[in-house]
Amino acid sequence: MGDRYELKKPFPNLPAQAQPAVCRILDANLDRAREGLRIVEEWCRFGLDSSELAGECKQLRQEIAKWHTQDLRAFRDTLGDVGTDLSHPQEEERAGIQQLLQANLCRIEEALRVLEEYGKLYHPEMGTAFKQMRYRIYTLESNLLGYQRQQKLLRSHLYLVTSESENLFAVVEAALQGGLTLVQYRDKDADDDVRVETAQKLRQLCRRYEALFIVNDRVDLALAVDADGVHLGQQDLPIAMARQLLGPHRIIGRSTTNPDEMRRAIAEGADYIGVGPVYETPTKIGKAAAGLEYVRYAAQNASVPWFAIGGIDPTNLNDVLSAGAERIAAVRAIMEAEQPTLVTQYFLSQLSRLQTLRALKAHLPQSHVQSNNLTS
Ligand SMILES: Cc1ncc(COP(=O)(O)OP(=O)(O)O)c(N)n1
Ligand SMILES: Cc1nc(C(=O)O)sc1CCOP(=O)(O)O
Ligand SMILES: [Mg+2]
């Protein structure tokens, strides 16, 4: 039916016999771009609750729809399309949301590129219009990735900081199986070639479990392995410099030991801070404990997510939580555990119990909280 339809406005630069094919290409890719956008939009709306990102998807869809005229639709010939049966095995499986989003953003970008090129044959303004939309998709992709990272960070209450270990990957994977969503690669001694290889493997592992992956100390390594961010101590690179190198959408964490360091880290734009050492720890020899007093200070004053760190294990966890911590970071308690999955699950269950309790407390009258001993 397609090739019998007469174009209302035949395009001047193309022989008549090529026009139906170009119309079918435009029709198919207009559909493809809109479908891909719809899939991304649904996640922005229902998964991220971001009206801004969902709104941008919707606007792009509407702009694309304006080009999808009856003239182009009339050439559709699904039965005669030799490409409908062609699908790549990767289209059949999605390892998770991240991969689903990536695949669809890629599909939209490809479709927009096709529309830009073939559109030039169809309408004098179509090429430019779709080129601009393609750049808007790149921005959307970058904003979406940054937003996803921040949301995941907010949802992460347990942070595993790794140490050198013969079983590094097995331990990290065991913790991920226990529900861990935030991992930092920390190795103070390895050569760079080893660090790169290890960081790449950990990155892959974290991606499989949809966990955030942060690199300690090294902005260059974080960029090289496409990590989600970097953790910087007081003696490491200034936050502003790291931000310049990493761009706006990667996470930057900063260690703090006292109120002044906390204030500066937040003012300089840290996405999260470490608060410690809560207890003296052999993992960080020579660093005096900041103690539970500093944890109490953080609970009252920190305006970004903060992780109590230093000497925390299942035996003292309750004291740290009672001092006001809602997030903790640990090295030995998980890296040296006989059962890292179980320890992770224990930490997470206590942290989540606390969240529930605090949410409950916020909605109950004070008298009820006291008489039912819900004070911790
Ligand atoms: C979550 C977290 N908090 C603090 C640190 C310590 O960072 P830093 O003071 O730079 O010391 P090193 O870890 O580099 O020895 C951290 N790594 N993670
Ligand atoms: C890496 C690190 N940074 C700290 C800080 O206070 O900045 S404490 C610390 C080590 C934490 O190790 P563990 O859980 O084995 O005690
Ligand atoms: Mg450091």
Features:
2 domains, binds the ligand Cc1nc(C(=O)O)sc1CCOP(=O)(O)O, elongated, TIM Barrel, eight-stranded parallel β-barrel, metal-binding, 16 helices, 376 residues, alpha/beta, 9% strand, binds magnesium ion
CATH class of the largest domain: Alpha Beta
Assess the beta-strand content as a share of residues. Answer: 5-15%
Q: For the residues shown, what is the average pLDDT?
A: 91
| The number of domains | 2
Spans where pLDDT lies below 50 across 5 or more residues: 1-5
Could you tell me the CATH topology label of the largest domain.
TIM Barrel
Portion in helices: 55-70%
CATH superfamily of the largest domain: Aldolase class I
How many beta-strand segments?
8
Biggest sheet features: 8 strands, parallel, barrel
Helical element count? 16
Distance between the termini: 73 Å
User: What's the Cα radius of gyration?
Assistant: 26 Å
Q: List the strand order in the largest sheet.
A: 1-2-3-4-5-6-7-8
Structure overview:
By secondary structure, the protein is α/β, with parallel strands linked by helices. The protein has two domains: 2-150; 156-371, TIM Barrel. Helix content is 56%, strand content 9%. It is built from 16 helices and eight strands. It has helices at 19-47, 51-67, 70-73, 89-92, 97-122, 126-155, 168-177, 192-208, 219-224, 239-246, 259-267, 291-301, 317-322, 332-335, 340-363, 366-371; strands at residues 158-161, 182-185, 212-216, 229-232, 251-256, 272-275, 306-309, 328-330. Strands 1-2-3-4-5-6-7-8 form an eight-stranded parallel beta barrel, surrounded by six helices. Helix 12 links the parallel strand 6 and strand 7 (306-309). Helix 5 runs antiparallel to helix 6 (126-155) and helix 7 (168-177) runs parallel beside helix 15. It starts with 18 loop residues before the first helix and ends in a 5-residue tail after the last helix. The structure holds the ligand Cc1ncc(COP(=O)(O)OP(=O)(O)O)c(N)n1, the ligand Cc1nc(C(=O)O)sc1CCOP(=O)(O)O and magnesium ion (MG). Magnesium ion binds next to loops. Magnesium ion (MG) binds next to loops.
